[in-house]
From TrEMBL:
Record-annotated membrane-spanning stretches: 374-395
Coiled coil: 203-267, 315-342
Name this polypeptide is given: Uncharacterized protein involved in exopolysaccharide biosynthesis
Keywords: Coiled coil, Membrane, Transmembrane, Transmembrane helix
Source organism: Paracoccus solventivorans
Superkingdom per UniProt: Bacteria
Length: 541
């Protein structure tokens, strides 16, 4: 099969070479023309995007859930923002301020032709064509000239700008990067300002509610006559403990006095001495007075203890009413503290986000244009031209019924000899010893020997070509030194009955693609009817 395709290439090499040469020449001319008229220089700038805490949390939650890289998703969001019109407009403003004027392409025949083609194209598609001013045209050119690539697995973007002026390409790339950085920072500032305003409003509201609750508590405390329930409760509890201790002391003294008086009464009842009895009676009178005094003291202390219990009950009720307000005040104070912490965190985050996007490698003026590359374009065009020329060759071979190679002849059961090229036949260069040996072995194997080496030459060729082919074969000797005697005949179409020719090996030459399969099959049938050995077919490529 490889030999078949090689012979196809040899048969169509002129067309393939012509197509490749034509395509290469066209590419060469166009590349040189574009190189001199409108070369494209590409300048690139590298921008780093440090992820925020929110983006890092997104990465951690997203990792392992999907096949997509979360860094790529976040970077793609930055790319869409970078390619937006506001960023391009800001970049154009920076570039205009740097150059002192709007950069415009110098008028040329190529630019005029390109503009005219687009006008016709727009008119054919939409019915009208809009003429852009210099600023709008430069803005459109800038947006079309931008290309952004992501460094895989990172937060780094390579921003490239292509323009026909190397210096403007570098300036435009740097202006675009600066515009994106400024736009991102302005967006961060706007977001931070909105967040700060929201937090400030919430803080003011919390301060207002805190002030209201404190005023309500102060008014209630004044109404209840309680300044500090906790301290007052502690004082009352201590006073109650002291009162209880004093009551216990009074009761103990009263009990002791009662026992002493009872003892004196018993002694008085058993005392016979009048003088001693009078002393006991005086002691009883004095003790009774002390007992009355202790009884009154106990009653006073019991009343004081009851008053303290009432005060504690009233204080508990007041503390219950004040605790509700205290809880509200504590809740508002907690909210206010959280808002203050959130404000501090927001300020720190805003300062950090302002440095998230930065230029790490500014663009420099390119030394060589990115397009066109004359040598590369020419080589590619040559290859494409050759491939395009192969398409009809292979299509004719696959879909046609013509005989184009020796393999086509063999597939019909006919005897095929190795093909020869037209150039070799035209030059008349004889076969080499190796080629003759293969030819002799083939014919000798079919005929049981070929001693006289006589070969009749005819075919579907002009008479001159038949004679040239005979000269290529005639006198060619193999390794045994016996030469071939090639006898040229008339073209096969001029021979009335080729089956009546002498019983010598008959070589029928045919050009690639000029004889159909049905015609060869008919010749095979004619040879079989004439009881003549089948001829040998040689395809001329």
């Amino acid at each position: 099969m490889l030999r078949h395709f090689l012979e196809l290439l040899r048969a169509s090499h002129r067309m393939i070479l012509a197509s490749a040469a034509a395509a290469g020449l066209v590419a060469l001319v166009l590349s040189v023309l574009l190189l001199n008229a409108r070369p494209l220089y590409e300048a690139s700038v590298t921008v780093s995007m440090e992820p925020s805490e929110e983006e890092l949390r997104f990465n951690r939650s997203f990792m392992g859930v999907s096949q997509f890289n979360p860094a790529t998703i976040i970077a793609q969001s930055h790319i869409e923002r970078l390619l937006s019109r506001p960023v391009a407009e800001r970049a154009l403003e920076l570039l205009t301020a740097e150059l002192g004027q709007i950069p415009a392409k110098p008028p040329s025949l190529l630019s005029a032709l390109s503009t005219r083609v687009w006008q016709v194209w727009n008119t054919l598609n939409y019915g009208y064509s809009v003429q852009l001013d210099d600023q709008q045209q430069m803005l459109a050119d800038l947006q079309n000239a931008i290309s952004v690539e992501i460094v895989e697995g990172s937060y780094i973007l390579n921003i490239a700008v292509s323009y026909d002026n190397a210096a403007i390409a570098a300036q435009a790339a740097n202006a675009l990067a600066r515009a994106y950085v400024e736009e991102a920072r302005d967006g961060f500032r706007r977001d931070a300002a909105e967040i700060a305003a929201t937090i400030a409003t919430a803080e003011d509201e919390a301060q207002r509610r805190l002030s209201e609750h404190r005023q309500q508590r102060q008014a209630l405390a004044t109404e209840l006559g309680v300044a500090d329930p906790v301290a007052e409760r502690a004082i009352l509890l201590q006073a109650r403990e002291d009162a209880r201790a004093a009551l216990r002391t009074a009761e103990a003294e009263l009990s002791g006095e009662e026992r002493r008086l009872a003892t004196l009464r018993q002694s008085l009842a058993t005392q016979a001495d009048g003088e001693i009895a009078r002393g006991i009676r005086e002691s009883l009178a004095t003790g009774q007075a002390g007992l009355d005094r202790l009884t009154e003291l106990r009653a006073q202390r019991q009343q004081g203890l009851a008053e303290l219990a009432g005060s504690l009950a009233g204080l508990d009720e007041a503390q219950t009413r004040l605790s509700a307000l205290d809880e509200q005040i504590a809740g508002v104070e907690t909210d206010l503290a959280q808002l203050q912490a959130l404000r501090v965190a927001s300020e720190l985050s805003s300062r950090a986000r302002l440095s998230q996007v930065m230029i790490i490698n500014p663009a420099t003026v390119p030394l060589y244009p990115r397009f066109p590359k004359v040598a590369v374009n020419t080589v590619v065009a040559v290859l494409v031209g050759a491939i395009l020329a192969l398409v009809p060759v292979l299509a004719r071979d696959a879909l046609g019924s013509q005989l184009r190679t020796a393999l086509d002849v063999e597939q019909l059961g006919a005897r095929a000899l190795p093909s020869l090229s037209r150039r070799r036949i035209a030059r008349g260069r004889r076969l080499g010893p190796g080629e003759v040996d293969r030819l002799v072995r083939r014919i000798a194997a079919d005929r049981g020997g070929w001693h006289d080496r006589v070969l009749l030459v005819t075919g579907f060729l002009p008479q001159d070509d038949i004679h040239r082919l005979a000269r290529v074969l005639d006198g060619a000797a193999g390794s045994d030194g016996t030469p071939i005697q090639a006898v040229p005949l008339l073209p096969l179409t001029a021979i009335e009955d080729w089956t009546a020719l002498p019983d010598q090996p008959l070589l029928v030459a045919l050009r690639s693609g000029e004889l159909g399969r049905s015609e060869l099959a008919s010749m095979q049938e004619t040879a079989a009817r004439g009881q003549r050995p089948e001829p040998y077919y040689l395809v001329v490529l």
